[in-house]
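Lecture 7 notes. Example A: sequence first, then its structure tokens.
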Amino acid sequence: MTATPAPAGSPAKVSTLTLSTFVVGSMVGAGVFSLPGQFAASAGVAGSLLAWALAGTGTLMLALVFQRLAVQAPHLDAGVFAYAKAGFGDYLGFVSAFGYWASAVAGNVFYWVFVTTTLGAVFPALGEGDTPAAILVASAGLWLFYGLIRRGVTQAAALNRVVTIAKVAPIVLFVVLCLFAFDPAVFAGNWTGGVDGPPLWDQVTSTLLVTVFVFIGIEGASVYSRHARRRRDVGRATLLGFVSVLAVFASVTLVSYGVLPRAEIAALRQPSMAAILEEAVGPWGAVFVGVALIVAVLGAYLAWTLMAAEVLLVAARAGVLPRPLRRADAKDVPVGALTITTALAQLMLIVVLFSDNAFDIALDLTGALILIPYLLSAAFGLKLALTTPGPLRLGAVVVSALATAYTAFLLLAAGATYVLLSLIVLVPATALFAAAKRERDERVFTPAEWVVFAVAVAGAVTAAVLLATGAIGL
């Protein structure tokens, strides 16, 4: 069926393919280029296969929840925020939106530090990404992307589609080239991890902690749902993106075991993909991977900037963030949200110039925040499944329950310390929620939300005391 054209003067909607590139584009960043070395450090082929199977199954459950919610609750925009708000109230909706945004901004700054550090190997003035020249280059890139996005959301989404294809293609080529250099005997020798390898289950648990975090970004199409031509496209794009990324990530890991012994892969300098391709095709392979790495990171930056601004915009329009963040121009660009997103990233880049440690702390404080929206979205899916009658109810309950358990595991895997430390960011940020409520002459908290906030304050105070006494560290 042909989609109905957008009315004249209204922003154009995006296709299923473009939506899926938000899923792929946000997940494929710097991490994939280090996967061979990370896996080989702990596991052989069998352990890697089991880890991918477990992580893939858990993420598939979450993807199916997003697919179902896109159809059952098509009126909810920017899924990870809207699902938390619809299921558990305004304050947890705010926690989801702000946590997602803050973590995305910190991650985006990491991307620029990573790019300038990589370029520092060729241009010494850039150093380790913390020199004045590096900050100047990163700042220029930051505002260049700001200008590109200001040209229009549809144009930026189309650019993200092109960039995503451009960064996935070299990774697929890596897999193909490694297949030509593939040695079945080497692969067989890596099957169990070697004679000195750890037990199989230990291999699985060690690598599982790597696999669970490479799928961060699975919500990309859901976040951009209001731009979809049809709401059912959101679910299709989520599944298409997930399957594509799982296939690429698992292939990168597995073909590497056919090029070099596990111990040698584990000893490679990161990004390990570069050294493996160099072994397979010669010195140009390392250069090829280096260029692909920069393209991938810049593409991930674009995707995450678009999604971070989108979540702020929708949250502000829903009344849980202040009014200035609601503004969008005639091209549907969330100007207020995009500006504050870019400005905070710029501020954090300046902080990098004076203190690497301060930036590392910011990453630690916000790292666990992005997992909270996943848990709340899955829990909302479970709540909806339990309260919606129908012949498919049992299947929906099972899928949602598994997704909820999986996302709870993600939070546990992140570490209780980092979850506790994230409250140091969330509690002061609640002032923004209170300001938004006062703008609408609404009470700030419901009785239940007062309890949630009190627990958060207690957790933040506990974290601050533990930090001050040295009981926990960053």
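Example B, a different protein, same format:
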Amino acid sequence: MEEARNCGKQLKALNFEFDLVFTSILNRSIHTAWLILEELGQEWVPVESSWRLNERHYGALIGLNREQMALNHGEEQVRLWRRSYSVTPPPIEESHPYYHEIYNDRRYKVCDTPLDQLPRSESLKDVLERLLPYWNERIAPEVLSGKTILISAHGNSSRALLKHLEGISDEDIINITLPTGVPILLELDENLHAIGPHQFLGNQEAIQAAIKKVEDQGKVKRADK
């Protein structure tokens, strides 16, 4: 959670004041929002959670080591599964060791999540289609009302939303990498179009190192000769 606290400190240094926070219903997203608000001294800001902001469902790949996936399927296939827009990993089956843990999770019942809408696997395109109704019906109206919004989401739900708001092409999204624990600023006009490209806030050298770390995931480690 050190990354979340550092994120909060960075936002505090830039004098950000938030009116509303949105998270997924996954622990990491919620805890991150709490820690950011604590660092900002804005714990009182309302927080709303939705399963539609959840991280992408990786299907049968859930729980697998990314390097092992690369060894089994090749780095390019793993890159397509992880980074492309419309390629979907193999779906999770009931025999998967995490299947019942996921689909019997109490949070989905408590949060009124339609079980028939829970995916068995998702591409980034699927994530965007899942996320957009919540953006259009709940988040966008708050932005249009003039509120400053913090979204504590995940790598792929964030990529999907940025693709939509910035008009990033299906081909170019594969090259968009979002480092963890780095605040991303996106300003929108009255039509909810991005005024400019998203900005990573913080030390740019450290941010580039964090981006490389994410990009190197899913690659086979090779011993030096």
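Note on Example B: Residues 1-57+123-217 form a domain with the Rossmann fold fold (CATH 3.40.50.1240). The first strand starts at residue 20 and ends at 23.
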